[in-house]
Design a protein that fits this description.
The complex is a heterodimer.
Chain A lengths: L4 H31 L9 H11 L2 E4 L4 H20 L15 H21 L3 H32 L4 H10 L6 H17 L18 H4 L5 H26 L10 H28 L8 H22 L1
Helix pairs in contact in A: 1-9, 1-10, 2-9, 3-4, 3-9, 4-5, 5-6, 5-7, 5-11, 6-9, 7-9, 7-11
Chain B lengths: L4 H22 L3 H29 L3 E8 L4 E6 L1 H24 L10 H19 L3 H19 L6 H32 L9 H5 L5 H19 L8 H7 L2 H27 L4 H24 L3 H28 L3 H36 L15 H14 L6 H14 L7 H33 L20 H19 L1 H16 L4 H4 L19 H19 L6 E4 L17 H4 L1 H7 L4 E10 L7 E11 L1 H22 L6 H18 L2
Antiparallel strand pairs in B: 1-2, 4-5
The chains are: A mainly alpha, B mainly alpha.
């Protein structure tokens, strides 16, 4: 029975990923409404949105190919797989050895690759525009992301996210300049990768500014529900990657029930605070012009490279 | 006589010779020629694969001295794990491409004679086999030339086009400058062995010599220059995007997939087996050149609209990635860390076989497009996923693999390379501590740009609507290629998957090579965690399981699909939403040039780009232009920086010397007279 515990924890974690992701988005949206002086639709509105889409019929363009219909399932499956690997409530996950942090970045690259292809499938100008921009942003964000993570992994001498978190939890706390650079870079990249302001605006459908929304413009019904849900999980997972690499304290290191429930409570608290941080950034900034984004990501890249250099030179 | 890998290799070579001998018999019957020779070539390649896999597995080098050769220097052959590995790689792709060629060359039947295509195709493959088998400098160079000349004639196959002739000439020039450098390098090495007569030219003699650093450096630089010219390392790459697209697509697949690997083989053979001296700066130089090649190669690839040119530039990028691994291996060896050197070399070998598989697959896919639509320009294609379901799926697999996405094979080698980078902090050198983080960053940037490049290639070619002026003769399934071509593409696609989900097994097989070259192993740690997991160093350091990722994706996609289809929701097929514009045409889609515009704008300073936009307005209403002309020209800066000055100055010098040629007999008599006088003065 004992050897089954890690698998039960794994199952719990996947359920948490599936259920908490819309909740986190609901929390972020609610905060945004409060900050902008509007009345919010409530914490549970994202659930209602997904459920509504699941019940609707699918409207599909005549020339949509199998790729267009396959992409939502793939995107959803890959995102959930990443959710099973990242240490969210516990470090002792059986899935943790399936992929290290480089592979997790590559899993998100699969999502981007197929979403961009699906955007081009129908053959509208919007889809192509979204895909082109997304690939530009992705090809600048991905290396910066890897560099930020590499800096952390140099300190812990591993690229497995669970082991990285384990090392940070058990080592005595030192304020490292390389970690500070990497954290700053990671925040910038997460904003870009999850399509938040100032890079992309998840709430707009304005032709000239949308990126992610432009790619998925042709989706409807259950396909759209899966993609939206996967998008929410992606935001949730980027937050948890940040937690696991920079603030892992509280994640359970054993398979003990009390530690796991403490881990869940810590997770909820951290997510609550990070949601406030995200909204402070979003309400404080305006969306950038598309060709300012390379400068934004370039500075993230520079920061993470500086982090790595400072590790090599100072530490 | 006992059966051994080398005997099996002979069998393969004899079969190739037999095929060539058969060609004249069937020259009159082109179709039979195609149906006989290419299947024979595929059998010969399959036999070579068996020999290669076997020789790596048993790990005992076999060598033999042939009775033919120069008077003083008989030819030497040797099959050791390193040659065995490259024999496997070359054989595998030749096997697939030969099956594919059976279908592809049918397109030429009735239009032009394929007799010399078959002959040079067979010689080309034989040349590549012999390059990795030869064990003395002369035989190596003879095989090298056989390969170069055969491929020159293959590039010249469609010689009515001036650009093909020009590409072939450029290829010949660069190949021979490279061969000359290799010859000089072997000369230096043979001289340093100190042996009389020609026996210094055997690789065995070089292996037994301790080279002084001075001569080792000269030989290494010459060999590296020569092999770089063949591999297309920037700035010696300019012939590659001209020559590879000019050849028929089956030959392009071989040239990009495996001919470039013979140059990689040469670099590894000369550096790790013959010279065995590893100054740090060699590694740093190779690493820097590899990084430049990788990043510039992929940026050039993104700018291309011609699908075969794009693939050729992408080969430049992959050679860069392989060089990064070789550079790291030299650096680690110079620090005497054999495990890390073995890790880098494993990444090199893995990427070599990976690139052979997916680039072969992609070039065959481009050939299928050419076969079906007679077009190479992506901007004239589109929507082909509906008409070529097999080709599009296989091209997609190739694109995923080359973009280093799990669970396919490209990811494994890139992952191993990142692990090698991340393990380097143990080195004690300030230069490397600056270089290696930058290197990791540039490699990551390259990997991400490859994905952008292949989203563009697949998306523009296969998705959306047909972009050409004339609508193709399209009925559904009407454009799909014939079965031999499909099988020739299905097999490498399967290899991409197998290499992606079973890396631990493959690495265990190929681990002896790096053990022999640098004295380090990784497989004992790689397989320790079970064959499902790849753990190159230690399982708490990093692990990856392609098989589980693959299974999870399949299971979850099926599960979600079934769950969502329990309750029936209808799918309504409706016309494309046109925002109420009503006059939407396929020309309004994003095309190749517009897709790459953001990246062109960011990295434009690296290129020589000229953009011209002209409005033509009618006289009736000048404020409403009726037509817009757009011209985009992207040039390789290296042409202007290096090649044009060289070619112009050589023309200038030959013009000056040309003045000596007066055409009158008495002038030449005066020249001879002056020469004799000078000789009498100086050579008393």
């Amino acid at each position: 029975m004992i050897e089954l515990y890690p698998f039960i924890i794994e199952a719990i974690q996947i359920v948490i990923v599936l259920l908490f992701a819309p909740l986190f988005v609901g929390w972020v949206r609610m905060l945004k409404c409060w900050f902008q002086g509007r009345t919010s639709a409530g914490l549970f509105q994202p659930y209602r949105g997904i459920l509504k889409l699941f019940h609707k019929d699918v409207i599909l363009a005549e020339n949509a190919s199998w790729l267009f219909r396959f992409t939502p399932y793939l995107v959803f499956g890959v995102t959930v797989l990443a959710g099973g690997i990242i240490p969210i409530i516990s470090l002792t996950l059986p899935f943790a050895t399936v992929a290290d942090v480089i592979a997790i970045v590559a899993l998100f690259a699969i999502v981007r690759f197929f979403t961009a292809l699906a955007g081009m499938d129908i053959g509208t100008a919007f889809g192509g525009m979204g895909s082109s921009r997304e690939m530009m942003i992705g090809s600048l964000a991905e290396p910066a992301m890897l560099m930020a993570i590499f800096t952390v992994s140099l300190i812990s001498q591993t690229t497995s996210l669970s082991n990285m978190a384990d090392v940070v939890i058990h080592k005595e706390f030192i304020l490292r300049p390389s970690m500070a650079f990497a954290l700053l870079a990671f925040v910038l990249i997460s904003l870009a990768e999850t399509g938040r302001i100032p890079v992309d605006n998840p709430a707009t459908h304005l032709e000239l500014t949308m990126i992610h929304e432009a790619m998925i413009l042709e989706y409807s019904g259950r396909h759209l529900a899966l993609i939206e849900w996967a998008g929410m999980i992606k935001l949730f997972l980027f937050t948890t990657i940040g937690i696991a690499s920079f603030f892992p304290w509280g994640i359970s290191t054993s398979v003990n029930l009390i530690n796991i429930s403490a881990g869940i409570i810590f997770l909820i608290l951290k997510m609550g605070f990070l949601g406030i941080g995200l909204i402070l950034i979003e309400t404080g900034l305006a969306k950038m012009r598309i060709f300012r984004v390379p400068e934004f990501l370039g500075s993230a890249f520079l920061l993470s490279t500086l982090g790595m250099l400072s590790y090599f030179i100072l530490e | 006589m006992n059966l051994s890998p080398l005997i099996v290799t002979y069998l393969s070579l004899f079969l190739i010779a037999f095929t060539i001998a058969l060609v004249p018999l069937f020259a009159k019957h082109q179709k039979i020629l195609i149906y006989v020779s290419f299947p024979l070539m595929s059998i010969a390649s399959a036999i070579a694969v068996v020999a290669g896999i076997w020789s790596v597995a048993i790990d005992t080098p076999e060598s033999v001295t042939l009775s033919i050769g120069l008077p003083d220097l008989p030819f030497h052959l040797r099959l050791d794990p390193l040659s065995g590995f490259f024999l496997t790689t070359i054989g595998l792709l030749s096997f697939f491409v030969s099956i594919y060629s059976t279908g592809y060359c049918k397109g030429y039947a009735g239009k032009r004679s394929v007799t010399h295509l078959v002959i040079f195709y067979s010689l080309f493959i034989a040349g590549m086999f012999l390059v990795v088998l030869s064990d003395d400098a002369f035989f190596f160079l003879i095989s090298w030339e056989l390969m170069a000349i055969a491929s020159y004639f293959l590039v010249m196959f469609e010689d009515e086009l001036i650009e093909n002739r020009r590409a072939a000439f450029l290829y010949l020039v660069v190949a021979h400058i490279g061969a000359l450098a290799i010859l000089l390098s072997f000369g230096v090495l043979a001289g340093a062995t100190g042996l009389e007569s020609f026996s210094g030219y055997t690789f065995d003699a070089m292996r037994q010599t301790e080279f002084p650093l001075k001569w080792a450096t000269v030989a290494f630089l010459l060999a590296f220059f020569g092999f770089s010219a063949k591999a297309g390392v920037i700035p010696l790459h300019v012939w590659l995007p001209e020559a590879h697209p000019a050849a028929p697509s089956n030959v392009s697949a071989l040239m990009s997939g495996v001919m470039l690997k013979t140059a990689i083989y040469g670099i590894i053979r000369v550096t790790f087996d013959l010279i065995r001296v590893f100054p740090l700066w060699w590694g740093a130089m190779v690493l820097i050149l590899g990084l430049i090649t990788a990043i510039m190669g992929i940026l050039y690839a993104i700018m291309q609209n011609d699908i075969k040119r794009m693939l050729a530039y992408s080969s430049v990028e992959n050679i860069g990635v392989i060089l990064i691994g070789i550079g790291l291996a030299i650096i680690f060896t110079s620090f005497h860390i054999p495990v890390l050197a073995a890790l880098s070399l494993t990444a090199v070998f893995y990427h070599s076989i990976n690139h052979a598989m997916f680039k072969g697959l992609l070039f065959m896919g481009a050939g299928a497009l050419l076969h079906a639509t007679h077009k190479k320009n992506m901007d004239e294609m589109g929507g082909l996923i509906h008409y070529m379901p097999w080709t599009s799926t296989l091209f997609l697999i190739g694109s995923i693999s080359i973009s280093a996405l799990p669970p396919f094979n490209g990811f494994i080698s890139e992952w191993l390379l990142f692990q090698a980078f991340l393990l380097s902090p143990s080195l004690n050198s300030p230069l490397l501590n600056l270089l290696i983080p930058m290197g990791a960053a540039l490699l990551a940037l390259t990997a991400a740009l490859v994905a952008a490049c292949f989203v563009k290639a697949f998306g523009i070619t296969f998705l959306g609507h047909w972009r050409g002026h004339h609508h193709p003769p399209l009925q559904k399934m009407g454009l799909e290629v014939n079965w031999p071509m499909r099988i020739g593409m299905i097999l490498p696609a399967l290899m991409c998957l197998i290499l992606g989900i079973l890396p631990a097994m493959v690495i265990e097989w190929m681990d002896k090579i790096s053990d022999e070259l640098v004295g380090g192993k990784i497989a004992t740690t790689a397989g320790a965690f079970g064959w499902l997991w790849l753990t190159p160093v230690a399982h708490e350091r990093a692990s990856y399981s392609g098989a589980i990722v693959f299974l999870w994706i399949i299971v979850v996609v099926m599960l979600v699909y079934i769950l969502l289809h329990i309750r029936k929701t209808a799918i309504h097929r409706v016309p494309l939403w046109d925002c109420g514009f009503e006059k939407i045409t396929p020309r309004m889609q994003y095309n190749a040039a517009s897709f790459s515009m953001p990246i062109r704008r960011i990295f434009g300073f690296l290129f020589n780009i000229r953009e011209q936009v002209r409005l033509s307005t009618s006289t009736i209403s000048p404020s409403f232009p009726n037509r817009l002309y757009y011209r985009l020209r992207i040039r390789d800066r290296f042409w202007g920086w290096i090649y044009r000055p060289i070619s112009e100055s050589s023309y200038w010098i030959s013009r000056k010397f040309g003045r000596l040629q007066q055409g009158y007999i008495h002038v030449y008599l005066i020249y001879s007279f002056i020469t004799i006088i000078i000789l009498l003065i100086f050579a008393r």
